[in-house]
Amino acid sequence: MSQNVGMSSCCLSGKVHEGKQAGREDEIGGLSTYVSEPSNGSKEKTIVFICDIFGYKFPNIRLLADEYAKAGFYCYVPDFHQGDSLDISFLQNVEPNLKTQESLGLADKAKNAAIIPATLGPWLVKHREGVSRPLIDGFVNTVRMIPGTNKVGAIGFCWGGRYAILQAHGKDKDTKRSDVGGVDAAYACHPSLVAIPGDFDPVSKPLSLAMGTKDSLLDNKSVGQIQDLMAKKTDVLHEIRIYEDQVHGFALRNDWSSDKDKKAMDDSAQQGIEWFTKCLS
């Protein structure tokens, strides 16, 4: 039976990063989209970014897309929430890093725990798989038809991490939707709401995973189960990297004032760049 690993207050934590965004906003496939191009403008290696609950306007994901663009990838960050992402003010409600998290008292932890059903519950219902996956599949299909596009990858974070894994299933086997979805390679960073083994058994495309040892949504037991499942897929290129002392959201929302946390974020970005360089070339 599949085990669903849910969301916690960690989904609402982290830091907003500052920097000049190099891309532009456009409309692609009916969705508002942040587009960041490589210096040569080539779409040969394209990446679709699947945002976390804070959406496509969140500065961190745009700055990260710019970083991938500098590495030679044509990057799209679509608004899969259709204007209904959670406000970034929630980032300040709970632990920004492991040190702060460990110093919280029982009252603060209880207060943070109360945020989950009140904030995430209704939002997750509104953006359930039946609503979100067709949007993501359709966008990938639209991108594939853009002239100059060759191989397409998907990278997802937290809420979007699971959908990156689903994209690694390949095209939907349902005959009603056999013409949409599926990328050439995927990269999921600290995914949430994953079903174990349900989301991993069908993986048929190259998949890279980045997870932290202090992730409240994917404990060591769950990570071990995922490792065992993927190890059996000897015909599918895959990798799993574990980041010591990193909490949920570290690849996108880490605190740059901490050298250790910034290095983990930088290393996870390099993990994705190396992965897609290998799989989309």
TrEMBL record:
<dbReference type="GO" id="GO:0016787">
    <property type="term" value="F:hydrolase activity"/>
</dbReference>
<feature type="domain" description="Dienelactone hydrolase">
    <location>
        <begin position="32"/>
        <end position="278"/>
    </location>
</feature>
<dbReference type="Pfam" id="PF01738">
    <property type="entry name" value="DLH"/>
</dbReference>
<protein>
    <recommendedName>
        <fullName>Dienelactone hydrolase domain-containing protein</fullName>
    </recommendedName>
</protein>
<dbReference type="InterPro" id="IPR002925">
    <property type="entry name" value="Dienelactn_hydro"/>
</dbReference>
<dbReference type="InterPro" id="IPR029058">
    <property type="entry name" value="AB_hydrolase_fold"/>
</dbReference>
